[in-house]
Amino acid sequence: MNKKLRVLIIEDSEDDYLLLQRTLGKGGYDLHCIRVDNPVTMTRALDSAAWDLVISDYSMPQFDGLKALKLVQKYGLDIPFIIVSGVIGENVAVEAMKSGAHDYLLKNNLNRLLPAVERELKEASGRSKRREAEKALNTSMQELKKQEEILKEKNIALKEILSQIETEKEEIQQHITANIEKLLLPSLRRLKQNGGEAEKRHIELLEKNLANMTSGFTRTIRNRISRMSPRQLEICNLIKSGSKNKEIADLMGISLRTVETHRNAIRRKLGITGDDTNLSTFLNNSAK
Predict the structure, then answer these.
(1) Reading across the β-sheet that carries 30-36, which strands appear in turn?
(2) Among 1.10.8.640, 3.40.50.2300, 3.40.630.30, 3.30.365.10, what is the CATH number of 196-288?
(3) Comparing 4-133 with 196-288, is the CATH topology the same?
(4) Fold exhibited by the domain 4-133
(5) If DSSP codes are grouped into helix, strand and coil, which group holds residue 10?
(6) Strand, coil or helix: 35
(7) Tell me, what DSSP letter sits at residue 235?
(8) Residue 34 and residue 59 in contact, taking contact as beta carbons nearer than 8 Å
(9) Distance CA 262, CA 256 (A)
C-alpha cells in the first residue's frame, strides 16, 4: 500500500506543477496535491487541510517563496518546506535556508527532489516524535510533582496525627500516674503497716512495681526489647531498685535458680555480654 502524501505546491505555472506531480509520483506515494499561487489561496488551503510537505517556487507574479515560508511559520507548522525554482542565486538560496527553508533545488535538476523529500519527511517525523516524547515527559513530571505535593501534605497530616497521639498518650500516662500516687500508694502503705511479714513483702514488691511504672522505666525497657515477658519486666523492676536474688525469690515466691535463669535471659535480651556490666547499673542508666 502506497504511503499517502499531502503536498501543497505553491506554483504559478500549471506545467511546472504537473512536472512536480509526476516526479513525486515516481516515489510510490499516494499523492494528494493542490496548487496555489497567492497568499489568499494558500491561507485557504492551510485552513482547510493538514499538509505533509510544502514545495514552493521562489519568484511568482503575486507571491514569492519567502512570503510563503513566513505564512507556514505563522501557522506554527513544522513540515518540510522545499524551494524549487527556475533560477536562484547562491545568496538567495542562503537567505532562504537561514529563514527556515529545509532545502532548495533547481527545476532543471529535479532528480534531487525525491531524495530531498524523503530525507526531510524522515527528519520531520523525528522532530514530531521528539516533541511527543518531551510532551509525555513534561506530563509525567507534572504528575510526579503533583503526587509529591500530595505526599508532602499527607506526611504533614500524619505527623500532626502522631504528635496528637503522643500528646494524648502522655496525658493518659500522667493521669494514671496521678491516680496511682493519690489513690493506690496511700492504701498500700496503710496495709503494710497493719499486715504481717509476708503481706509486707508482697506490698513492697507491688509498691516498687508501681513506682517504676510511674517513673516510665517499664515503658523504656519495653521499647528497647519488645520480647521481654511480664515476669522478666517485674524482675527488672526489682533488680533496678537494688533487690538481691534471694530477696526477689522470696518476694515473688519462686526459686533462686529461677531468678538466676530470668536474670540471664534479661541480660541476653538487653544485649549485655560478659560479666563486666552490672545489670542493676545498666537498668538504672536505661531509665534516664
Answers:
(1) 30-36, 4-10, 53-56, 81-85, 103-106
(2) 3.40.50.2300
(3) yes
(4) Rossmann fold (3.40.50)
(5) strand
(6) strand
(7) H
(8) no
(9) 10
Q: How many CA atoms lie within 13 A of 190 on its CB side?
A: 5
End-to-end CA distance of the chain: 85
User: How many residues would you count in the chain?
Assistant: 288
Give average pLDDT by consecutive 10-residue segment, the chain, 288 residues: 88 94 92 95 95 94 92 94 84 86 90 94 91 90 90 88 83 69 64 67 68 61 66 83 85 87 86 81 73
Helices then strands, each counted (H, E), the chain: 12, 5
Distance CA 41, CA 38 (A): 6
Cell representation of residue 52: 505533509
**Alpha carbon distances (Å) from 170 to 222, 226, 237, 275:** 16, 20, 21, 36
| Per-domain residue ranges of the chain | 4-133, 196-288
Q: What string of DSSP letters covers 123-147?
A: HHHHHHHHHHHHHHHHHHHHHHHHH
Residue 14 C-alpha from the chain's centroid: 60
CA dist 193 and 166 (Å) reads 39
Cβ atoms within 10 Å of 219's Cβ, excluding its own: 14
pLDDT of residue 11: 95
Tell me the CB-side half-sphere exposure of residue 276, using CA atoms within 13 A. Answer: 2
The set of cell numbers assigned to 255 is 526459686
